[in-house]
Amino acid sequence: GGGGGGGENEGSGMRQERASTLDQIATRHHRRQAFRDRGGRRVHSIEDPTLLHVPQSSGGASNISGEDGGTSTATAVIAFDEDSESTSEKAQRKLLELGHIGLMRLVSKMPLEVQQQIVSDTLPPSFYEMLASRSTELSRGHLATGNADSSKGAVHWFFEEATGQWDFYFFQGDEVEPSIPNVPDEIPPTIFDLLHNFDEYALSRGTPPNPPPRPQRDVEPTAEETSPQFQILPWIKKTTVSLGFQRRQLEEYIDRNVSWEEVTGTVFLAVMVCVIAALVLSLIDDYYRGFWLFWFCWVVGSAHFSLVKSVHSDPASPTPGQNHITAVSRAIYFILVGSLALVLNAVVSQEDVVLTPLCVYGLNVNNLAVLKFVKGALLVFILCLPIIYAFGWLPQFNTFIIYFFEQLDMHIFGGTAATGLFCAIHALLRSVLLCIFIWPLGFAAFYALRVPSGSLERLNCTTSGTVDPMDPVNCEVENRGAFAVYLGVLFAVSFVLSRSTTNYQYIWDAIVHGVKKCWLQLRKQRDSRSISAADDHLRDPLERMYRDTVCKRLLSDIVVAVFILILVTGLNLTMIFCLSKIPAYVIYGITGLLGILNHYLLPQIRKELPWLCCSEPILVSREWKTFEVKEPPKLSILEKALQCTLFLEKNIFYPLTFLFALNLSAFYYKMKFGDIGAAVVMTIVGMKLLRSSYTELSRQHIVLIFTVLFFKFDYGHLSEGFPLDYFILAILLNKFYDLKLKLFFIYIYIVPWQTSWSSPCHILIQPFLIPHAPVIFFQTLLASILGAPINPVIASTFFILSYVRPIKFWEKDYNTKRADTTNTRLDSQLEGVRNPNPDHLDSLFYEHLTWVLQKSLCGDLLLGRWGRYSSGDFFILTSDRLNALVHIIEVGNGFVTFQLRGLEFRGTYCHQREVEAITESVTEDEGCCCYDPGHLPFLLSCNKAFSSRWLAWEVVSSCYTLHGYSISENQAHLVFNSYDYKRCYITYYNKCIIYKLIKCPRLRSLLSNEQIRAALAQLDRPDYVEPDRIFDDVRNADYNHSLGGVTRALFEELYLSFVRVCVQQEDLEIECDSGSFLVTLCFAYSLLGRRMFFQHAQAGSGRRGGDNFMNGLYRMFLGDARPNHTNDEWVFSDVDSIQDIIIPAARIALKVHQDNFTIWDEFDAPQGVYEHIADVEKNHVVTHENDREWRNAVVTNKPSLLALRYQRSDESYIFPYKLIHLSSKFIKFRVVKINRECVRSLWTSQQHELIFLNNGDSERGSIQNHKPSLRNMINSSMDLPFGYPIYVSPLQTSFADRHASYSSTLVNKISNPYESWKVVHVLKDLCATCSKHIQVQGSRGQPASKGGGAPDTPAQQQQQQHLAG
């Protein structure tokens, strides 16, 4: 230092070393850091780091000063006395040097071995990261006195050999030391005391010339120093405003806006709330008075406050934590309801408005009193908004839009369920725009219809009940031409809409692809290279399949729509649909009987327990009695008959039914609603009826029968015509069906004899159910009307109403991307694969199951293999290992959109109990009440028949067959538990290296490479010995113990014959005799592969030698091949050969070695070994489970796969390596249908409990097993973080055209334009050939042959065979 002369005489080496040490400390902590020690003192670390010199005094202390003699401002003086320091103090000093100040207080909780390794700096950085993340946990306890110390807070340390680092566990204590995470509480006095007592040190050691200023203690910074400041007007400095909050404090009061769009939207909503509130108070001034005016202001204030600070743990939020959408939803709801009230007030307040009475079902709906009532209801609804928000009865606004648009499209226009926000908007706009397009045709058609003479020009509320809506009048041809065209367009458009999904992305991709293809053709780039370039972005074959299928369906739909337009127009011109009502009721009866047959009788007799009385299906499939299915299931006679009857019902009888109804009701609607109103009503009602008959066919027969019986025999005077009656009853019966499902679930869930008392809270709630039963029923009725689920609070027997949700239920859209070698870092692949998550690896099988269902689900549903189904239903597929929940979301004409949720392979105890309930035998129960009299053959016992009716699920089929994989896990150490087995594997490893080398396409370039020849010159010698000590005679058959290494002579003796066999099989004209360079190259690659293998084996951390060998095999199996020996540098001339030769050889050798135990007789001769290696390479996939090739092999149904998995768990701690073998086969599944309201209610309950009630207990009572409802399996399948499925698929659409059995039937060929055109073309050729043959025979004066004119050409014979097929 400048003033301390003693420091200049010290050696420069020691001084520079000390300066370097403290420079590191100063650089790491150059910013101001403040912390307190146990005495409450505030200590400041180095603030202004400069280049420091630390002279060493005789006493061992080092003072800090500037290099320039006084200009620097160091703020710390640190004393080091290495001789007198203990190990803990040295460890603390070492942590200070390394920059881990927050860990210094934890040194006293570490054993001596850990402290010594810290001092010697031999611990990896991961140890300090682990210690920093668990510092709070470690600070709670004390170091254990011994292994038997089990006192509270005792910390036990142990060395984890698998990871190679220290770890600890402790017995939880009651007292926790107050501490600040990652900030030292205990400061070693030998290092930090002088930081605080700087003046005392200066007096004892001499005062530096420019001592650093003494830091002030216990002085908090003022608000002006820390609070943010900003200018309201940037060009005027006096407009600066200082907030009295720090940033952290400010975030506790207001939410942070993350974007300018959010700021702008929030301000706009706040302004709109003010405007709507002012308009409501000024224009509707006679409504809010006194207290209600104050309450209205409270509602306005709550809408404003939610924009400033959102409610955390909102009961209507679908996600935990802060939700920006929920924050703005309250303001949006206020604006929406207030705007509707203002619009209605503007209509009602006009005194000169005279509304024409319009009576529908005896009620005048066009009345000012109705509008006033709605206006008053909206104003009351505004006052109820805070209470509604508190109970969470209104969802976030985007969820409400999806729900509202979906309900409108389904119940008004006959649409299908929406799969997202933009899909819901697209579906509704599509229906509205097409109705607007059809309406002018309808108006022209009704305008052309003439009212018969003598009839009323317009019906009113007095005369509407005196006219029969189905009275056939005025069927003149000249009046019905426009009406026939109108109905033809309506039928064609409805058919096309029923065939299209709400997901517009499919059609958009098809259109974009078509435009690109046309553009390439216009530019005359028709070569395959250009066409394939347009498809390079579609790497996923599923995406390409979707595009091709949608294109074919779109073209097919256009052809069929034109055919329907012509057919319906022509049929309407024949006047057969308006002459009499008797044919109409005949068609109604036949259609209703077909519906009962197809959707009630046939599904019941094919169920596992028909009518819950029989013990087995009445009509079984061929696979039902088969133990193991060897081939895909074929169509049975029953399924073919079902397909024919469904075709007749959907495409013949329902269109005829609605043709009769629309024709017979046309004049009634013209007289009742006028030309404009009749066109609107007929268009909307007709579209709803037709689209519903194409999509939701399973419940249409109930609506049809109920409509005919109710309005024909019971309340005929109230009928408004069959179409409108059908339209209204379809909505009411749909709501009634939801009410039935909800009540069934409630009854099943609350019955006392099967209630599981999961917690004391559930026991206390059960008695309170009885007095609240009317309230629960009223909420259930309201939930059915709104389409909202009911919420069993904490899965108890007390139910409350939840907010409305769409059929999809979840707002999140999954787009699963599997982590593999193509999208992860190389270091993560090599180092991060230790102990991988088995659930991530097992999720691939659910992905494969999704692919299989995507191909076959729609066809299987149409063939009745899943029983009755409709949009929103839930099914569970269960087999030996796989348990998946399938959610049917959208059901259309020839397509189904679904989502699959895969559960864990190794489920919990509750999970297994519910699986056992599904798979238990029903014939073993012979009880009747308290006795066991047995049961009749093929029937259930009384107790079983009674208990089966009190389940929220039922087994639809027990033999549903799908293509899948049988998974077998074997301990890998069993095939390597002796030295002979290891030597055997190394021998096969060498042969596989030789095989891959000779099959390598670059073999000739390798043989002619002069650099490789020069580097391997010494290996050409016949007496060459590899002296590397990594080789031994235990694992290497070509090791010469007397020479101390692997020799070339022994290598040729063992492998030369195999080299010749490989060369002969590949038909290569290459010298392969002893001493040839090919043998030298094989020997070099063998040494290279074995050396990398044994290097990994030496680096293994297993307790046993077998684990070390397995570590080498596992690292090579992963592709971790890094040559680091000087003798292997020649391989850098062709680095790709490591991945092309060495790595595949290590994998193939494992399969060959495993097969050696079963078919050992084939491995005696080199020819047999070659053939087996070639078979493994061709027909088997051997790779690790994170490889992209593994996923592609599973998805493309490769017959056999093998992988090596490392999984260290409690059961497999000593032997963590497993051989995973997959065999392609057909797997039997049980198909279980669950009450959909059960699933929606339990999902709602878990969301409410985890988000709003904040109950994160992993063993909470709401997720315990409950066999009647399968509560644990349902809750496990929820979205993360509520459930824990190992796989959730994206929304998949299954098309009936891709089902092999369904698409090959005659009915599908007739309904498919492509197949129909082929049949017509073949018939045309046959007729032409027959006519030509007859003409030739007639010209000769000879009669035609008995067999007719058979085709003579091979093409005609092929066409005839195709027609016969």
How much strand? 5-15%
Output the radius of gyration. 41 Å
Residue share in helices?
40-55%
The assembly state of the depicted protein chains is: single chain
Number of helices: 45
Care to count the β-strands? 27
**Residue runs with pLDDT of under 50 for 5 or more positions:** 1-84, 173-225, 526-538, 1102-1106, 1339-1365
| Helical/strand content category | alpha+beta
- Backbone shape: globular
Mean pLDDT: 79
Task: Report what the structure shows.
The chain is built from 45 helices and 27 strands. It is an alpha+beta fold. Strands 16, 17, 18, 19, 23, 24, 25, 26 and 27 form a nine-stranded mixed sheet that branches. The chain is globular. 37% of the residues are buried.
Task: Describe how the helices and strands are arranged.
Layout: H1 12-28, E1 34-36, E2 42-44, E3 52-53, E4 61-62, E5 65-66, E6 78-79, H2 87-98, H3 112-119, H4 125-133, H5 135-138, E7 142-143, E8 154-160, E9 165-170, H6 189-196, H7 198-205, H8 223-226, E10 229-231, E11 240-242, H9 247-251, H10 260-283, H11 291-308, H12 324-348, E12 359-360, E13 363-364, H13 368-383, H14 385-391, H15 397-411, H16 421-448, H17 481-498, H18 504-522, H19 528-534, H20 541-573, H21 582-606, H22 637-695, H23 700-714, H24 722-750, H25 760-765, H26 773-786, E14 790-792, E15 799-801, H27 826-831, H28 838-862, E16 874-878, E17 883-891, E18 895-902, H29 909-919, H30 942-948, E19 953-971, H31 979-999, H32 1003-1007, H33 1010-1015, E20 1025-1026, E21 1039-1040, E22 1045-1047, H34 1048-1065, H35 1077-1098, H36 1105-1118, H37 1136-1155, H38 1166-1179, E23 1180-1182, H39 1188-1195, E24 1200-1206, E25 1217-1234, H40 1236-1252, H41 1271-1276, E26 1287-1288, E27 1292-1295, H42 1300-1303, H43 1306-1311, H44 1313-1339, H45 1354-1364
Helix pairs in contact: 2-3, 6-7, 10-11, 10-12, 11-12, 12-13, 15-16, 16-17, 16-22, 17-20, 17-22, 18-20, 21-22, 21-23, 22-24, 23-24, 24-26, 31-34, 31-35, 31-37, 34-35, 34-38, 35-36, 36-37, 37-38, 44-45
